[in-house]
Each structure stands twice: as C-alpha cells, then as structure tokens.
Amino acid sequence: MSLPARQEVFSLEDLRLLAALAETGSLAAAARQVRVNHASAWRRLGALEGRLGVRLFDRRRTGYAATPAGEEAIAVARHMLAELDALERRLAGRDIRPSGIVRLTTTDTLLALVLPVVAGLRATHPGLVVELVTDNGFFTLTRRDADIALRPASAAPEGLVARRLGTVATAVYASARYRETRAGDPLALDWLGPDDSLSHLGSARWIADEVAPERIVHRASSLLALAAAARAGIGLAPLPCVIADPDPGLVRVMPPLAEMATSLWLLTHPDLRSTARVRVVLDALAEQLKAQRGLLAGQELRGL
C-alpha cells in the first residue's frame, strides 16, 4: 500500500511573497515586487493560509500587519531566501566562462564613462550581456539587485569587495552668459541645489552650510538635471567635474572644493569576485576609470 503524496505547504513563490509583504505592508506593492498581479498575490496568500489553517496577516486600513504566526513564517522565509541567495552566489562564482548576464548599477553622472566599456565588451566578449541600472542610491548587492556597483561614496560598504578608483571632484558652474552678466560674490547669486534625495552629497552639505536659503532658487533630484538648469542660465550649480568640464555650455565659477570631493568605488560581492563574466567587467571598468582619473579629479579643464 503506497502512502499518499505529501502536499507542499510552502513554495519558493510563497516565501518570496511573505518576505515582500512583510517589507512593504501592502499587497499591491508586494505583488509588484515579486512580479505578479494583485489578484494572483491575493489568491496565493489565501491559499497558503488555507493550507496552514492559520491567518498570517491582519488586513487593516493602513496595510497588512503580520500576526504572531505570520512573524514566525516571515522569519523562516527570510532565512531560507538568504540561504538560497548565498547558494546562488557560490555556484555563480564557479562559472569559468566569460559569458552571460552581468548586472551593473551606477549613477547617471558616470554613464558617459561606463558606456564605452559596455561597447568595448560587446566587441571583445559577444557572449556577455551587461544590464545597466542607473540609480543614485546604493543597491543591495547581497540580495543580487546587481553584480557590480560603481559608486561615488566617502567609504565602501562593509561586506563587499571594494576597489578605490580615484577621487570625484566637484566644482561650481554656470552658463557663460549667466557668469558674464552677473559679477560679484558668487554666494550673493542664485544657486541650484540637490533636493533631499541627494542630501548625502558633499555638495548638498556645502550648500546648506554656505549658501543662504533664499539664494537657492531651484532644486533637482538628479545632477544631470542640475547641469541642464545651470546650462539654461538659472543660476550656479555644484557639479561633478567629470560631467561639467566637457560641457561647452558650462564654465567654472569656483574651483573644485575639498568639502565636495568623494571617492569612487568599484564594488562586488565576495562570492562573485572570481566569476569569469564578473571579472571581465570589473577589469574593463577599472582600466577605463584609471585612464579618466584626471577628468574625474577635475584636472583636465578645457584650455589648460
């Protein structure tokens, strides 16, 4: 007499939904995170609670709140997902072929330096596909949001393999016409500043300390947007020299300031550092950025 097949209680998709719902507190947001529609997520959660015979979340006006049973299930789900992520990284680290997908995250200000690397890799390693994610915040490499990060930061995050590539300098710029028609103390002119999403930048802290609030006439969540606003003649903007010096529509008003400078880091997870496809991209980026250290440090001003 054969025993009945054991019914699966938790699937990998269930674990991911539990973790996402605990993180977001919203079924709609959790569904987007695990890439299913709202109705599918609702049915999956209901089916899971039905199989377990216990409610995992209380449905409130403010969102989904875990019950005591839910908190236990969430803890196990997070642990198992972390173990699976770690296994995936270890197995990926044994890949000796320079082919496949490499996810690279960087800021929009560094795209002009990164894209030539991507183009070069297409010619030398046609089996590589570089997925480029531009975001001004740090991705969590330990959760495989990306394989490599190229980031300006005062210090490298703990737990990652980090290579310092040099200094990213920032100076103050304006359009040539704005500067010609407005003489005098730069601090008495109109200023363009980063918004709160970029408050971690040295330039944001410098403006907060040195520029009167009434002189700040425009803010933006992107340094490329601030460069465009300065080019349009709205005011002065602190900008990385790497994007502003090559721009014929901008001139320096103040030299690079030490308070605004930061380091440039090339980052990956320890489990991926020896993976062939990741190693190829890391080395190509390091070579390109090494050749551009003068531009990054603000030492290649036009006309010098």
TrEMBL record:
Coiled coil: none
This protein's record includes keyword DNA-binding: yes
Disulfide bond as UniProt keyword: no
Domain HTH lysR-type: 10-67
Gene3D superfamilies associated with the record: 3.40.190.290, Winged helix-like DNA-binding domain superfamily/Winged helix DNA-binding domain
Pfam families recorded: HTH_1, LysR_substrate
PROSITE patterns per UniProt: HTH_LYSR
Protein origin, superkingdom: Bacteria
InterPro entries attached to this UniProt entry: LysR-type_TF_proteobact-type, LysR_HTH_N, LysR_subst-bd, WH-like_DNA-bd_sf, WH_DNA-bd_sf
Keywords assigned: DNA-binding, Transcription, Transcription regulation
Similarity field: Belongs to the LysR transcriptional regulatory family.
Name of the featured protein: LysR family transcriptional regulator
